[in-house]
């Protein structure tokens, strides 16, 4: 490779860069400043990938995140993230192709990483600062948009403390405090400064309630909170939308450091179905899905126009279950579960079971066959199980679901 990019016409150079796999482009950026500027100037916007390569899933009884994909042509994605300097991780958040991961282990203070699985580049986050409010835990969320900048931020959002057994409001004055508070003190990590800094966000409008009223189901809080709540970063609005407990989200404006509480549709359903709701980003922005025990799926879109913020119902349907012997024909080609946990724990020689380029563990969603839920085969008696929400396609109005049979067989849709 020459020390500087070849003097090609703009369209010719863009076409050359477009044909390179992401990890090669990442290495090219490191050659010199001229190559970095050439890649960055042509990657943003029209050169960014517009397809989904796969889905990371956190199953409740597995140690590491799994990677669910379909076989196709193209560069391989290592779902086990074996290039990290640890045995394995759980993916706790994601934003525009970047992953926020937490090392899985017995360490009380596990290491955290920001990872690009396509380029195989990663950065370890510094140790988290202690919460500003004693007794409050923090959940980390990513904010990143490669069209604007290759730098990212990580926000540590406080969440209300859980009461101890037998604790009453009089025992803990925090339980009588407004939640969310009028002033939110938040730690933010920037990849530019490489350090955590404290930022204050001021609330606009009313609070959601008091801390004591946000704790009415301890099983719901302990079991479901860590991986059931997500955030959406929208650069156009310069806002981070965070799914909070008990039926609301907070819209945090990064431009003027204010935030407001927005009630979620169907909030009363969250108590009964804590694993059957999902906040995510799709074609038009912020979407929210609810799936009840009757397999009724509702999808909402957050509209922000003319100074109004309101939820619009986009889809309302009842899902059917698949006839066991015919689901593969309806879906098309079967999905591939890389079975990360088996490879890492049960393999006699884990080093020989890492994903290689020849295994082609990736998925081109543009070739996907999306199922029309109105024409799915009627439910049959010998197939029983539950649907669970996985998330949204970022560029199409498509919801990803998984159907887990009672025999623990998993069917991705």
Automatic annotation (TrEMBL):
Which domain of life does this protein belong to? Eukaryota
In this chain the F-box domain maps to: 2-52
Q: Name one Pfam family in it.
A: F-box
Name of protein = F-box domain-containing protein
């Amino acid at each position: 490779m020459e020390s500087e990019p070849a003097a090609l016409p703009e369209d010719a150079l863009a076409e050359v860069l477009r044909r390179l796999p992401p990890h090669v482009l990442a290495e090219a950026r490191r050659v010199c400043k001229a190559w970095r500027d050439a890649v960055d100037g042509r990657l943003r916007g029209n050169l960014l990938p517009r397809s989904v390569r796969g889905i990371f899933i956190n199953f409740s009884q597995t140690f590491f995140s799994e990677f669910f994909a379909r076989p196709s042509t193209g560069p391989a994605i290592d779902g086990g993230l074996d290039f990290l300097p640890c045995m394995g991780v759980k993916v706790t958040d994601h934003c525009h192709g970047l992953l926020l991961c937490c090392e899985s282990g017995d360490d009380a203070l596990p290491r955290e990483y920001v990872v690009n699985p396509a380029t195989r580049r990663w950065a370890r986050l510094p140790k988290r600062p202690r919460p500003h409010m004693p007794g409050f835990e923090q959940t980390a969320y990513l904010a990143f948009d490669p069209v604007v900048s290759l730098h990212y931020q990580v926000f540590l959002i406080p969440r209300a403390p859980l009461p101890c057994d037998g604790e009453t409001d009089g025992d803990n004055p925090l339980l009588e405090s407004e939640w969310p508070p009028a002033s939110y003190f938040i730690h933010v990590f920037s990849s530019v400064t490489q350090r955590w800094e404290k930022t204050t966000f001021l609330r606009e409008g009313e609070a959601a309630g008091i801390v004591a009223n946000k704790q009415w189901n301890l099983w719901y809080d302990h079991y479901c909170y860590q991986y059931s709540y997500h955030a959406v970063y929208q650069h156009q609005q310069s806002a981070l939308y965070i799914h909070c407990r008990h039926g609301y989200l907070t819209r945090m404006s990064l431009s003027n450091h204010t935030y407001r509480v927005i009630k979620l549709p169907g909030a009363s359903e969250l108590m009964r179905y804590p694993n059957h709701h999902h906040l995510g980003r799709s074609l038009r922005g912020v979407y929210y899905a609810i799936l009840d025990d009757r397999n009724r799926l509702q999808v909402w879109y957050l509209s922000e126009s003319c100074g109004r913020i309101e939820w619009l119902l986009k889809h309302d349907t009842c899902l059917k279950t698949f006839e066991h012997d015919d689901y593969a024909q309806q879906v098309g080609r079967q999905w591939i579960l890389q079975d990360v946990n088996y490879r890492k724990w049960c393999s006699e020689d884990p080093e020989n079971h890492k994903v290689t380029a020849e295994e082609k563990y990736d998925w081109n969603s543009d070739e996907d066959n999306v199922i029309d839920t109105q024409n799915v085969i009627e439910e049959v008696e010998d197939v029983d199980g539950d649907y669970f929400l996985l998330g949204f396609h970022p560029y199409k109005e498509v919801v990803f679901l998984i159907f887990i049979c009672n025999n623990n067989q998993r069917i991705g849709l």
